[in-house]
Amino acid sequence: MEKRYFTIGMAGHIDHGKTSLTKALTNVDTDRLKEEKERQISIELGFAPLYEDDEIQISVIDVPGHERFIRQMIAGVAGIDLVVLVVAADEGVMPQTREHLDILKFLGIKNGVIAITKIDRVDEEFIELVKDDILEELTNTVFEGAPFMLVDSLSKKGIGETKDLIIKTLMEQEMRDAKGAFRLPIDQVFTVKGQGTVVRGTVYEGTVEEGQALKIMPNGLEVRARQIQVHHKQAQKAYAGQRTAINLSNVSKEDLERGDVLVSSEHFIVTRTVDVAIRVVEDLEHLVKQRMPIKLHIGTAEVMGRIVFFDRNEIKEENGEILCQLRLEEEILTKRGDRFILRRPSPQETIGGGWVIDPLGNKYRFGNQTVEDLEKKKVGTPKERIMAALVEGKSLQLNELITRTALDDEALTEQLSDNDFVLYNDKEYTLHSIINSIEEDIFDRLQEFHLTHSMKAGVNKAELLHVLQKKFPKSLLDFVVENGIANEIFKRKEQYVSLKAFVPHVPKSWEKRTENLLMELKKDGLKVRYLKDYFSSAGIPETLEFDLKKFLEDQQLIVQLDEKFAYHGEVFRGAVDKLRSQTGSEFEVGEAKEVLDLSRKYMIPFLERLDANGLTKRVENKRVWK
């Protein structure tokens, strides 16, 4: 079974015992800043390993509870798979708890556990009252029906049972997508002496490995993962759902900030205009007005912008989903389905949240027609959902498409008969547009190679596809090459691939000198000088010698006897014909020397070349013609 990775979060009101509970579960104190110790509150996100075995690894984020640190709280919650909602037995549900619940709902967190802490401070009867209070508050939230755990972090009462429940719940949960392109929203940037710049975050999706080339978005900085750590231990790879720190090359700390995103693919979209579906909180204190300034929290980014409605000019109360647009002051990296939170910058409050319908929004007219168009876009036709999945995954099998599109087998099969889709290897689907894109890329690479290496037959196939394998599965690349050969766009000779119309040739600037070399070689017949002397006297530089020699051999213009000597192709073939016509089915070295009038210096390499070319076979002291 493939190992799975999860990150859970502690959420709740300030001083309700999140950090103490994290410490009791993990034996790690996540309050690491001096200011946090002094004020006894969490300011930054704290992380700790909770559990690991052969099947599963679980990390914990301790999320700040204080209202001033809501940005860090959102950054932490955005990457988690399960939330432990911490409520102190002696206080019950508090304002921050309610705000955290709203945020969790808008971010689409679906799994939760309720931990009632500090139970040693109250009697059992009071705990039952707290439970009733919590149940009432949690109606219509993600935590409705979630299990309760009674714990005391100091005495460790209930800690073991809570840990077991978390593990059991996650064992039954699907992990994040580890097969898509790698994406890590950065929530911490720092430097390590002697190592350089390090970023930390929760892997949203995909996998990253040591040495991999990556990009920092939205600014497009190219970096490399020099080293990967998971909970202070070096790792070769990090997977979706894992908390990880990555030491990056080619970048300084000053070039990065929380909110940047580390990615492996160029297919993620950078944008400032986003079509969205939002819901607002139930108890809005102030009107949300058309084009009002908002603060968008998405991934770990916090960006100012304005909200644009197409069917209203304000919101006071609204139970349903509103289709609208966010126009931002800075670029963000996002894709369809990403969750976000909206807050009012002043006075500060959570307005609502939602998900991205289309990261590449346009300017639309005010009116119901735009809302209807957004509704169609939101739902997405089955074909559009399949195409979106293939644009991201490049090549997917039927079961993978079912998972990614939420369509059943029958609906998928019906759509996949469309001409936009291609089935190859009898089991994998891709898009014609992807095939065309890869084909164009290979064409351009071969064309460039032929211009600079005109004497070579082509590019080694493995070398040609090596760079592309970072973006596309090898099975798809192999199919595109074979398809290109079948359609006479490419051709292959042994392991070398070239353009169909390409013919290897000597560069124009060296044609005359090459002709002179061949003339000299032919003129000297069977009693040649060292091959190197011919190159030198023809004025051909050493840097060109290897490639030219290989080209002349491939074209059978010369035949190399050994490392020192070579014959002109016509001279060699003439000597073979003469020897064959003047000997029987077999001959000895002496006979050959007499026929060709050659000394031992040339004779032995010549006969060994006959053997190597499969023209003769040595049997004791004789050669037998084949």
Structural class: alpha+beta
**CATH C-level class of the largest domain:** Alpha Beta
Write down the domain tally.
5
Summed over residues and divided by their number, the pLDDT gives a mean of 85
**How helical, in percent, are the residues?**
25-40%
CATH architecture of the largest domain: 3-Layer(aba) Sandwich
Separation, N- and C-terminal Cα atoms: 57 Å
Largest sheet: 6 strands, mixed
How large a portion of the residues is in β-strands, by DSSP E?
A: 25-35%
Number of strands: 34
Which key phrases capture this entry?
single chain, 626 residues, 6-stranded mixed sheet, 6-stranded antiparallel β-barrel
Question: How is this structure best summarized?
Answer:
It is found in: Cytoplasm. This protein is α+β, with helices and mostly antiparallel strands and 626 residues long. The chain has a 6-stranded mixed β-sheet with strand order 2-3-1-4-5-6, with helices on both faces. A 6-stranded antiparallel β-barrel has the order 7-8-14-11-10-15.
Characterise the protein shown here.
33% of the residues lie in helices and 30% in strands. It is built from 19 helices and 34 strands. The strands form nine sheets. A six-stranded mixed sheet has the order 2-3-1-4-5-6, sandwiched between helices. The chain has a six-stranded antiparallel β-barrel with strand order 7-8-14-11-10-15. Strands 16-21-19-18-22-23 form a six-stranded antiparallel barrel. Residues 3-174 form the Tr-type G domain. Keywords: Cytoplasm, Elongation factor, GTP-binding, Nucleotide-binding, Protein biosynthesis. It is found in: Cytoplasm. It comes from Neobacillus bataviensis LMG 21833.
